[in-house]
């Protein structure tokens, strides 16, 4: 799991959440596995919690390593929809090093 500490990640929701048009979540974490597990376990609060409550499925679609909260802010300025490989045909690149989530999907349980 080396490389998954201090990462930014992008979550894509299958449907917009509730009344808002939010369909993406960008976060920063020091431990992606734990963070995703807590997103999965939560119901009711926050975007992932509301998605879980509403039965809307979601997944982590991109991960950038060696990140910090400034990287998170920079990615949020791009906007989740512009970074999302599902929603946008242009995969916006940032200066951050990206983890190949497709290749690592078998090792990482989301
Ligand atoms: Zn998307």
Listed once per kind, the bound small molecules are: zinc ion
Overall geometric form = globular
Radius of gyration: 13 Å
Write out the strand line-up for the largest beta sheet, numbering strands in chain order: 2-1-3-4
How many separate helices?
5
Strands, total number: 4
Strand residue percentage: 15-25%
Chain-averaged pLDDT = 83
Let me know the largest β-sheet: 4 strands, antiparallel
Report how far the terminal alpha carbons are from each other: 14 Å
Helix content: 25-40%
Flag low-confidence runs: 103-110
The structure class reads alpha+beta
What is the string of helix and strand elements? EEHHEHHEH
- Could you say how many structural domains there are in total? 1
Write a concise synopsis of the structure shown.
The chain is of the alpha+beta class and 110 residues long.
Q: Would you kindly provide a written description of the structure presented here, covering whatever features stand out?
A:
The structure is a single chain. With 110 residues, the chain is of the alpha+beta class. The chain has one domain (7-83). The chain has five helices and four strands. It has helices at residues 32-41, 46-54, 69-78, 80-83, 101-104, and strands at residues 7-13, 24-29, 58-65, 97-99. The chain has a four-stranded antiparallel sheet, sandwiched between helices. The radius of gyration is 13 Å and the shape is globular. The chain starts with 6 loop residues before the first strand and ends in a 6-residue tail after the last helix. The model is unreliable at 103-110 (pLDDT under 50). Bound molecules: zinc ion. Zinc ion binds at residues 12, 23-24, 84, 86-87. Residues 12, 23-24, 84, 86-87 line the site of zinc ion.
């Amino acid at each position: 799991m080396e490389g998954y500490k201090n990462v930014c990640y992008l979550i894509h929701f299958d449907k917009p959440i509730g009344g808002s048009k939010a369909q993406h979540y960008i976060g920063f974490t020091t431990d992606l596995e734990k963070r995703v597990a807590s997103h999965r376990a939560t119901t009711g609060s926050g975007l992932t919690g509301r998605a879980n409550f509403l039965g809307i499925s979601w997944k982590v679609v991109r991960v950038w390593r060696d990140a910090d909260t400034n990287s998170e802010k920079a990615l949020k300025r791009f906007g989740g929809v512009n970074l999302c490989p599902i929603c946008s045909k242009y995969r916006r690149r940032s200066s951050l090093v990206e983890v190949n989530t497709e290749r690592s999907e078998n090792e990482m349980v989301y």
